[in-house]
Amino acid sequence: MTELIEVGRTMGPYGVRGWVKIAPGADGEAMTGTRKWLFKSALSGEISPLEVQGVKPHGRFFIAKWRGCEAPEEAPRWKGSILIDRADFPELADDELWAADFIGCEVVSRQGEPLGRVASLESNGVQDLLAVSPADGGRPFLIPVVEAYVLEIDVKQKRITVDWNRDWL
After folding, report:
1. Is the CB of residue 98 less than 8 Å from the CB of residue 92?
2. Model's pTM, two decimal places?
3. 73-112 as b/e, with b when 16 or more CB fall inside 10 Å?
4. Rounded to a whole number, what is the distance in angstroms from the first to the last CA of the chain?
5. N or C: which end of the chain has fewer CB within 10 A?
């Protein structure tokens, strides 16, 4: 099953040899561990494979070179998103997860009460935050991804148990 994850967005040319600057998404580090990238055009929505020739970190961003973008003047036609199939993500240590693994997980209290589903993983600069869409359709809320609140993450069952109370919403 193909599950395409957006790992970055192109920002424009870098240098004079056809490199492109990329703003990484939550799972942007996956770009350095695989060359099986896809490009989704911001103009047409069309998805096509990229033949990646190089990628490197550049401050908070990445720069990448692929076949078909040979000069800075060609970079504007590459405005869009970088996608990677979840199956092609690099392996992580046993205690690590990709942000994509959290999306769609059911969030339940320690008493088993459904609180909602993870819509995205965000950050406040200090820690990651689960952005949860409530089960009852109420206002979305954030739960810090720290041991005090996140008790268990079961990616296979797509379930996260938290020490959180519905009254706190």
Report:
1. yes
2. 0.82
3. eebeebebbbbbeeebbeeeeeeeebbbbbbebbbbeeee
4. 36
5. N
